[in-house]
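Please check these two lines:
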Amino acid sequence: MHRRFKPQTLLEATDGSPTLAALLARARDASERLKAVETLIPADMRAAVKAGPAEEDVWCLLVQGSAAAAKLRQLTPALVTRLNAKGWNVSSIRIKVQARH
């Protein structure tokens, strides 16, 4: 006997799985945080910056290249201020440099 699985959309799958729903909520939160601060990041650097996970009051930004990471570290006080003004409780931002692929 062959089982046939009905294809599901991502939304249907997350509705049926608390784990997937929580993961999707975290991804949305990270994306919304990045949107809230993107205007503070120089336009030529934005493509190198990706939203990472938030753990309690620490948010992680993933960045390509050490030069971009250094500039982003200079901007973290302004980023934290903006996020707090928008309603997120952020005390610090961790910058993680990703290797280029």
Notes: The first strand starts at residue 49 and ends at 55.
